[in-house]
Design a protein that fits this description.
Layout (H helix, E strand, L loop, with lengths): L13 H31 L6 H14 L22 H8 L4 H24 L6 H12 L3 H6 L5 H15 L7 H12 L6 H14 L1 H26 L6 H4 L4 H16 L2 H11 L2 H20 L14 H18 L4 H49 L3 E4 L4 H6 L3 E3 L6 H4 L12 H6 L2 E8 L4 E2 L5 E3 L4 H8 L1 H6 E10 L2 E8 L4
Parallel strand pairs: 1-2, 1-3
Antiparallel strand pairs: 3-7, 4-5, 6-7
Helix pairs in contact: 1-4, 1-5, 2-3, 3-4, 4-5, 4-7, 4-15, 5-15, 7-8, 8-9, 8-10, 9-10, 9-14, 12-14, 12-16, 13-14, 13-15, 13-16, 15-16
Length: 503
């Protein structure tokens, strides 16, 4: 029996029923929309495969044939920053499929699933359908998530691990320590710079629930110790080779992060994300973790690849915050605040969408150039090398397509070069050293059309520092001759140099 008078319930009109139905439909369809948007971008960009994706593919292929963690004959080499990223391609190669294609498909599906998880989770923290749709839009509006998850690298796997960790952190009524710990353990095998974000996650988890935080910490420790043990066992060093091959350059990292935040959030989405975090203690911990990841990317020096793949792992978590913030500000804001909310949403979606429109033709052209120019070039390099080594910076596609041994001038896959002092692509490499290592062909890249003198050697060349020094070194001219210049694209030329005393 009721203890007090029953309060009369207001009748639900047709408009309220329609709103409720629309909200329910939006909430249930938003995850599918998020998945579809990300996967559609990835499919459109599928011809693009980053050069390092072929490095993972080569490791996967050699593992499947029982040749060990190697790129070529010899000892194991630490050429993959995230070893877990090799697993999809390895399994694909065991089943008879191309490991690079399998890695691209799995990565894209992981990213799409991550966006769907974020859209689904938003309804538990905000206004149901509207926020879920906005999260889907923020996750799928730009190029970063779809393009880079289908690039052949471990990016898609890292996105999924980071999203699972983020959602485990903000779960209600308490964080899910087991899922958080497993996500951190996976990230230890995928992206080392994510360690700073993982520490922020653990601190926020302990602050909410000490028991769940202890569970997460235990599982995270297992992941961290296992990757350190893996590297000590195979390579004799606890840190990835890229730590020395690509030393930190914070100033470059600051410029990288600044551009990346503008492109991925339009800054409007950033404001909306911070608004959501300011209204919720639970979401605030997630926002601090995203900030920690951006700081780690800055300290590491960003990335030398085009685009902003290092920010991709936090895009679904950012979309969750931005979607919640947009829905709340539009729903509960004053008459003056609502136009501001609309303007911020337009910025947060419009800038990434504009970047997507600009980038898709470029990445597709890069894929077409690889097949039209890169594949014949790989065959020519194999023919010119006569079974000996080729020294170059792009050690992904060309050596795999031509099936020749490569000396990595950047040092990312070559510890003898990578551990030398100097920034990435600026290691000191001597021409005589290349001859001693059996290099028959030297490939130099120029970002403007190179020019040759009457004797057929370079007079005008603009490449990376390691290539620039070799091009101008008098001993290089004595030991090598320019065999041909290949125009790869409008601003990318390969200068093919062969040994003067070669066959």
């Amino acid at each position: 029996m009721p203890l007090g008078p029953r309060r009369a319930r207001a009748p639900i009109g047709d408009g309220d029923a329609m709103t409720s139905t629309w909200s329910r439909l939006a909430r249930t369809r938003a995850p599918a929309l998020a998945f579809a948007l990300v996967v559609a971008v990835g499919i459109a960009a599928f011809p693009f495969t980053v050069d390092d994706g072929y490095i993972l593919g080569r490791y996967a292929d050699r593992l499947s044939r029982g040749l060990g963690w190697t790129l070529g004959p010899g000892a194991a080499t630490d050429g993959v920053t995230g070893p877990l990223g090799v697993v999809p391609g390895w399994v694909g190669a065991l089943l008879g499929f191309d490991p690079v294609t399998v890695s691209k498909i799995i990565g894209l599906l992981c990213a799409g699933f991550s966006a769907a998880l974020a859209a689904r989770a938003s309804s538990r923290h905000a206004l149901g359908g509207p926020s879920s749709l906005l999260v889907a839009a923020f996750a799928g509006a730009g190029a970063t998530l779809g393009v880079w998850s289908a690039s052949g690298l471990e990016t898609g796997l890292a996105v999924l691990a980071a999203t699972v960790g983020a959602l485990a952190l903000v779960a209600r009524p308490a964080p899910r320590g087991a899922w958080l710990g497993m996500a951190i353990a996976a990230l230890a095998w995928l992206r080392p710079e994510a360690a700073v974000m993982c520490v922020a996650w653990l601190l926020a988890c302990v602050a909410r629930d000490r028991r769940q935080g202890t569970i997460a910490l235990g599982l995270a420790a297992v992941g961290a110790c296992s990757i350190v043990g893996f590297r000590l066992w195979l390579f004799g060093a606890p840190l990835p080779l890229s730590w020395e091959a690509k030393p930190a350059e914070p100033l470059r990292g600051l410029a990288y992060a600044a551009r990346g935040l503008v492109v991925t959030t339009g800054l409007g989405g950033l404001v909306l994300a911070w608004f959501a975090a300011s209204k919720s203690r639970v979401l605030r911990g997630l926002a601090y973790a995203i900030v920690a990841h951006v700081v780690a990317v800055i300290v590491c020096g960003g990335d030398w690849m085009p685009g902003f793949r290092l920010l991709a792992p936090v895009v679904p978590a950012y979309a969750l915050l931005a979607g919640i913030g947009a829905a709340r500000l539009a729903a509960v804001g004053t008459a003056r605040q609502r136009p501001v909310a609309v303007a911020l949403i337009v910025l947060g979606l419009g800038v990434p969408a504009l970047d997507l429109v600009l980038q898709l033709p470029r990445v597709r052209e890069a894929g077409a150039a690889r097949e039209a120019v890169g594949r014949p070039l790989a065959a020519d390099l194999a023919r010119l090398a006569h079974g000996r080594a080729v020294a170059l910076v792009d050690v992904g596609f060309l050596p795999r397509a031509g099936d020749f041994d490569a000396v990595d001038l950047g040092g990312v896959t070559d510890p003898s070069i990578g551990r030398r002092p100097g920034p990435h692509l600026a290691k000191r490499v001597e021409p005589e050293e290349l001859v001693d290592r059996g290099v028959e062909v030297l490939v130099l890249r120029s970002f403007s059309e190179p020019r040759l003198d009457d004797e057929g050697w370079l007079t005008s060349f603009r490449g990376e520092p390691v290539e620039q020094r070799l091009a101008l070194h008098p001993q290089t001219r004595r030991l090598f001759r320019v065999a041909r210049v290949v125009r790869y694209s409008e601003s990318y030329y390969y200068v093919i140099c062969t040994r003067r005393d070669g066959p």
